[in-house]
Each structure stands twice: as C-alpha cells, then as structure tokens.
C-alpha cells in the first residue's frame, strides 16, 4: 500500500537527476601533501599520543591541504556523512529530496498552475492552450535536468529569492514559444512562495515514501517474516529482566517485530499528504480582487487534487504542517521498533545464538584479529538515533508558526532529507545484518538444557488445576536460588498428588518442548502481516 497515486502517469514527468550521471560528490584526488610536509611537531607523534601543535598556518604554508575557499564538494569535503561516506547508500533519495529535486517540483507546480488557469473561462487573458503549447510546457517538466537546476541557482544569486528565481527561469524558457510568451505574467499568478513550496514539499515526501522508503520497509518486514517461518520450530530461552524465563521459539520472537513494523508501515501509508493554494494569508485576497467571479477555493481544491494531494482549506500563509508532524512521528515509531530489534539481535549475537557470516578481507578490530562485530546492527541503531533526533525536531517545530507565518519552518524543513536519509541508511544496515545471520541451534539448546527451573511455571499451574495447596510456594521453595536439573524436576513431579495422566504429561515436558503456541504463531506471521497491510508484502 502506498500514498495515493497521482492522477495521470505524466503528472510528475520523468525527471531523474541521476540521468545526468550525478555521482557524488565527485571522486577526490589524492591528498595534496605528503607526510614530510607536516610540521615537525606533527611528525614527532609516534607513540599514540595526541599533541596539539602551536604551529600557525600562513599564506605560504597551509596546515591541511587547500584553503576552505578553494575546496570543492567531494566525498572527502562534504560536511554531512550522507553526502560523503554514505552517499552510495542513500543517493536514491536524491531525485526526490535534493535541492535539484525541490527546484524540479517547484517548476512542476508553477507550470501546472498556469495550465489550470488556462482552463478557467473567466480568465480570458489566459486562453486555452493548443496541444502544441501543452506539449511544450510538459516538456519543461519531463526534460528538466541538472543544468536547468543550475540555471535557476544562477538566477537566485541575483534575486536572492529561490522561488522567484524559478518564475524568472520559466519566463526565460517560455519566450521561445509564441503562445506561452503572451501570458508569461500569469506564471505565479496570485501565489505566495509557500503556495509553490508547500506543494513541492508534499510531492517530495509522497514520492520519497512511495518510491524509496516503503519498498525498503517492505524488504525488512519480508526478511523478518521469512526468518520467523524458517525458525518457527527453533526453541529459545526467553529472558525477562535479563533472567531465564519461559521458553519461546526464535521464529516467534522475530515474528513480533514483523507484525509491529507492518502496523507502523500501514499507519504511514494512510497519512494524508496535504496541500494549500490560498495566497498570502490563506484568504485568496488578491485572487478575489483580480477575478471576483471565480470560485477560487474550488479552483484551488481542484488544483491540489490534480497533483494527487489532499486539500487543506483552512490555512494562513503556510500549510499547517500537521500532516508532516504525523508522518515524522510515525517514522520515529517505526524507527523505535527497529532500534528494539537491533538491540535484541545484538544481544543474541553476544549470547552466540547467532553467528555472523564473515566476508573475506573485512576487519572487525584494528587490534583483535578474532573479532566479528555486529556492526550492521550497531550502525543501524546509531543512525536511527540521529534520524529520530531530526525527525522529532521537525515534528515539533513545523506545526508552530507565529501569527500568519514566520520563516523558522523554511530552514527547518530543508532538513527532511537528513532525518529520512539516516533512516534509509539504518534500514539498509539492518537488512545487511540480517543477511549475515546464521542460527546457532546448538548454543540455543545448551542454554535451555541448563535452565530446567523454567518448568516451575507449568508444574505449579497444573497443581492449581488439581487443587494442590500452595503450588506457587512449593515451586518457589524448589527452584528459587537453587540449582535445578532434570532429575530434581522428575522427583518433584513424581511426588505430586495429581492424576497419573497429568503427571505423565508433566514428565514429558522439557525446556525445549515447553514453547506453547509459539511455533504456530511464527508459521502464520506472514498471513497476519498481509491482513494488517491489506496486501502482500
């Protein structure tokens, strides 16, 4: 299940910044210095001690490579690890969340609005466009490229206004078409910048979730369902408060996370992505003065719906961002569940319940050669924490704006890619970690066989059924703080005054077989997940 599709396959065009071979932040050349070029105070460091040098760079001697004014963006100069170290793992977000993507969606909204105006009979100044003119305008969307985005940025250097730069860019582009050139001043007609921006951001979010995030979430849920079914029968010692507890199966514990994540994924897909298009303070003030006979609220609603978005009629200058807060909160909850999973698997690896498949050439520790660390789950947990920090601020800040609008949301909303990017990075780390796991059934069985005291629960429960006095207290006396084994359990059961059939059934119990309905719960998890989502994962 995805956010509702746009009304028409060509609505967004076929823009893809990666088509222009957008690589990374480009490949960095070898560092422009050698070890010998460092000041002697640095070269003397040879015993793992950090020394702060008092050497001051001069115009003829730079401490580290080129001056910052000379640096170009690369994987080594990028400030954000998403744009540097991790670019290869998150670059699929670029067509939807990058600066060029924002410009593209602004262009799309401006053009679609001009086309909408041409369909309003009362606006005689913008007559219906010919098919040729429509094709021309659509081509500006479909063929939008990084060169176009750079042209907009160059205009912005003069205007110092990003949305106005898009308007001027379109006016320049459309001068070559005689039909469109006659109505250039109707680009951005009646609009405040936020009319354009809020729809652009809404489309960015919608396409990001549908094209990138939901598919990766589904892969995680599917991987957990598969693992749950494959290990439905594998008994495992539970631990509550870190102490041995009633046995479960490995598959059932994995199934829990599959179902939890699927619920959050469903909630995310049901969030309405809203848009407004009501002018400077939400009242269509200028629209009504210019064309008083047009039903502008109805026109705005039709326009927003034509983009595949839901309409928010009650706004000031900006869309209220309440839907964004809801979406980011849901992402946080999905991430929290995944943190819980990462930590549980980390613990199971520590207990040797899982082995990790090693990869030739990889190093776990710079000093301990034997180490195979659970780095994928640690990386996931760390990035989920960063993501949640950003998403939490977005969800708390964006719905708050002074009076009819302040500018604080503008700079904050640009960090959507940070929260979403670190989430995606974490999801991929989790998937990578899952792919390395091997179940160590021998170790699982060993732990169970050392914990016969977990059978105290079923024994005292059966004793209750048959009226044996103080069953809990008797088992507490037998097991609490004492060594319990198969033999001591057998002797206790045989001494019970209960029916022989019940006694026989208790004597058949072992920690390995005392798993209740766990096997069936794990085996049927995929059908439950499909019911939750209303579709097949």
TrEMBL record:
Its EC number is 4.3.2.2. The keyword Lyase applies. Residues 401-515 form the Adenylosuccinate lyase PurB C-terminal domain. Residues 85-385 form the Fumarate lyase N-terminal domain. The keyword DNA damage does not apply. It catalyses: N(6)-(1,2-dicarboxyethyl)-AMP = fumarate + AMP; (2S)-2-[5-amino-1-(5-phospho-beta-D-ribosyl)imidazole-4-carboxamido]succinate = 5-amino-1-(5-phospho-beta-D-ribosyl)imidazole-4-carboxamide + fumarate. CDD domains: PurB. Pfam families: ASL_C (PF08328), Lyase_1 (PF00206). It is an enzyme of class 4 (lyase). SUPFAM superfamilies: L-aspartase-like (SSF48557). GO terms for molecular function: (S)-2-(5-amino-1-(5-phospho-D-ribosyl)imidazole-4-carboxamido) succinate lyase (fumarate-forming) activity; N6-(1,2-dicarboxyethyl)AMP AMP-lyase (fumarate-forming) activity. Keywords: Lyase, Purine biosynthesis. Pathway: Purine metabolism; AMP biosynthesis via de novo pathway; AMP from IMP: step 2/2; Purine metabolism; IMP biosynthesis via de novo pathway; 5-amino-1-(5-phospho-D-ribosyl)imidazole-4-carboxamide from 5-amino-1-(5-phospho-D-ribosyl)imidazole-4-carboxylate: step 2/2. GO terms for biological process: 'de novo' AMP biosynthetic process; 'de novo' IMP biosynthetic process. PANTHER family: ADENYLOSUCCINATE LYASE (PTHR43411). NCBIfam families: PRK09285.1, purB. Belongs to the lyase 1 family. Adenylosuccinate lyase subfamily. This is Adenylosuccinate lyase. It comes from Vigna angularis var. angularis. The gene is Vigan.03G081100.
């Amino acid at each position: 299940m995805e956010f509702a599709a746009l009304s028409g396959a060509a609505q967004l065009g076929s823009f893809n910044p990666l088509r222009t071979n957008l690589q990374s932040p480009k490949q960095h050349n070898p560092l422009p210095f050698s070890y010998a070029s460092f000041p002697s105070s640095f070269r003397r460091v040879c015993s793992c001690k950090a020394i702060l040098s008092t050497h001051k760079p001069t115009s003829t001697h730079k401490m580290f490579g080129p001056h910052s004014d000379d640096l170009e963006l690369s994987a080594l100069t990028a400030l954000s690890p998403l744009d540097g170290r991790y670019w290869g793992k998150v670059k699929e977000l670029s067509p939807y969340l990058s600066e060029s993507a924002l410009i593209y969606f602004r262009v799309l909204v401006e053009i679609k609005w001009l086309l909408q105006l041409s369909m309003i009979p009362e606006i005689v100044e913008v007559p219906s466009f010919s098919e040729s003119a429509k094709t021309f305008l659509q081509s500006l969307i479909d063929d939008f490229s990084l060169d176009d985005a750079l042209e907009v940025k160059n205009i912005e250097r003069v205007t110092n206004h990003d949305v106005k730069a898009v308007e001027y860019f379109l006016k320049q582009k459309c001068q070559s078409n005689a039909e469109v050139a006659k109505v250039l001043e109707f680009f951005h007609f009646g609009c405040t910048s936020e009319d354009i921006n809020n729809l652009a951001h809404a489309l960015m979010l919608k396409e990001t979730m549908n094209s990138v995030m939901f598919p990766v979430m589904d892969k995680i849920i599917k991987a957990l369902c598969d693992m749950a079914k494959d290990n439905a029968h594998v008994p495992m010692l539970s631990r509550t408060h870190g102490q041995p507890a009633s046995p479960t199966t490995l598959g059932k514990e994995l199934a829990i996370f599959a179902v939890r994540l699927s619920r959050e994924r469903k909630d995310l897909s049901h969030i309405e992505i809203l848009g407004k298009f009501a002018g400077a303070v939400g009242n269509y003030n200028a629209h009504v003065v210019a064309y008083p006979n047009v039903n502008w609220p109805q026109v705005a609603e039709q326009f927003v719906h034509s983009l595949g978005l839901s309409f928010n009629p009650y706004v000031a200058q900006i869309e209220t961002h309440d839907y964004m807060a809801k979406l980011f909160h849901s992402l946080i909850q999905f991430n929290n569940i995944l943190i819980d999973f990462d930590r549980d698997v980390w613990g199971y690896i520590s207990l040797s319940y899982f082995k990790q498949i090693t990869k030739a050439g990889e190093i776990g520790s710079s000093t301990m050669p034997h180490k195979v660390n659970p780095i994928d789950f640690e990386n996931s947990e760390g990035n989920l924490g960063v993501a949640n920090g950003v998403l939490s601020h977005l969800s708390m800040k964006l719905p708050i704006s002074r009076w009819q609008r302040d500018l604080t949301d503008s700079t904050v909303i640009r960090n959507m890619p940070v929260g979403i990017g670190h989430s995606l990075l974490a999801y991929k780390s989790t998937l990578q970690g899952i792919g390395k796991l091997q179940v160590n059934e021998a170790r699982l069985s060993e732990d169970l066989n050392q914990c016969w005291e977990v059978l105290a629960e079923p024994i005292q429960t059966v004793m209750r059924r048959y009226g044996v006095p103080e069953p809990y207290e008797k088992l507490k006396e037998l097991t609490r703080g004492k060594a319990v084994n198969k033999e001591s359990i057998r002797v206790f059961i045989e001494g019970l005054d209960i029916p022989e059939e019940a006694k026989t059934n208790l004597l058949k119990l072992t920690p390995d077989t005392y798993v209740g309905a766990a096997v069936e719960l794990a085996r049927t998890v995929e059908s439950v997940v499909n019911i939750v989502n209303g579709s097949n994962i």
